[in-house]
Amino acid sequence: MKILILGGGNMGLTYAQSFLRSRIVTSDQMMVLCRTYEKANQLSATHEGRFFSDPRLCVSEADLCILAVKPQDAAKLFDEIRDLVEPGQVFISIMAGVRLETIMQALGVQKVIRAMPNLPAQIGAGVTAFTSSDMVTRIELVMVQNLLSTTGKTVYVEQESQIDAATAISGSGPAYVYFFMNAMIEAAKSMGFSASEAELLVSQTFTGAVDLYNKSDLSCENWIAKVASKGGTTEAALRVFNAENLHEGIIEGAQAARRRAVELGK
Ligand SMILES: NC(=O)c1ccc[n+]([C@@H]2O[C@H](COP(=O)([O-])OP(=O)(O)OC[C@H]3O[C@@H](n4cnc5c(N)ncnc54)[C@H](OP(=O)(O)O)[C@@H]3O)[C@@H](O)[C@H]2O)c1
Predict the structure, then answer these.
(1) Which CATH code fits 173-264?
(2) 107-127 pLDDT, tens per residue?
(3) Mutation test residue for ligand 1: of 11, 79, 103, the one with most atoms within 8 Å of CB
């Protein structure tokens, strides 16, 4: 199977490297279309795979195409490749907010998957929500799931609207985690720890807490109750968090992200 990634940026190269590492494709079967000749040249000197800047030399050769440009560059890309695509090709779009229908109409294709990965995909620890147009077969869907799984876990959603919801939870989610970590690092430094000590204390606390959660059947509430003994230090912190409505604030923040994802898709 020949795969073409359209857009050799952060996510595009993450996928190319993941597919090669998992031996899903050989270097000869992995193609990447860049915007400029210089970029294609530069990447072919440092990365495995075949790099192009002329869509006429690669688009029709691919069995599967991954749309990995920024949403604002999509219309121009569609203009460049519309006359080159083949009806049987499967398209996976990872572009935030760009609807299945928009892609199908713009390219005149029917087999389209829309996927929302997140940043930890870069280290194989991502999570990707994906959905598909009706014409994608079960076999093609399994193949796509195998491809997406090379960057972490996957969740198939029936409704396309759930991709906007996943954007607000797992797509933007890493930034929420870093926001919380940042505040804890600040707190640690204000208590006299050096920057590196503060970062270690906080990042290992996150890693350990999440690993523990993943290895058990307990809910977050159960684990909070295990840490927070009555009248103790954790309870003192949680009382302040609750007084500040932190829980509701996070839910409202995620809902705002979802509304923005819907707006951007219009
Ligand atoms: N980063 C994330 O965490 C994340 C998460 C989920 C989804 N996404 C989605 O992934 C997509 C890519 O994001 P990114 O962070 O990888 O962006 P990026 O690093 O800017 O990569 C986009 C690449 O597309 C290239 N490009 C633009 N127009 C092109 C064209 N007509 N033909 C060929 N290549 C073209 C750009 O080239 P130049 O640099 O030369 O302009 C750039 O290398 C976005 O749609 C985003 O919504 C990203």
Answers:
(1) 1.10.3730.10
(2) 999 999 999 999 999 999 999
(3) 11
The pLDDT, as a whole number, for residue 185 is: 98
Asked whether 71 lines ligand 1 (CB < 6 A), one says yes
Instruction: Give the CATH H-level superfamily of domain 3-158.
Output: NAD(P)-binding Rossmann-like Domain (3.40.50.720)
> Is 63 in contact with 3 (CB distance < 8 Å)?
yes
Give the domain ranges of the chain. Answer: 3-158, 173-264
Ligand 1 center to 69 CA (angstroms) = 3
Pocket flag, ligand 1, residue 140 (CB < 6 Å): no
pLDDT at 264 > cutoff 90: no
For residues 20-36, average pLDDT: 97
**Nearest-CA residue for atom 2 of ligand 1:** 119
Measured by CA distance, the residue closest to atom 20 of ligand 1 is 9
CA angle (229 as vertex; 226, 230 as ends), nearest 5: 140
Alpha helices, H only, the chain: 10-21, 37-46, 74-81, 100-107, 138-148, 161-166, 173-190, 195-214, 220-227, 233-243, 246-264
Angle at 54 between CA 50 and CA 56, to 5 degrees: 100
- The alpha carbon of 70 and the centre of ligand 1 are apart by a number of angstroms equal to 4
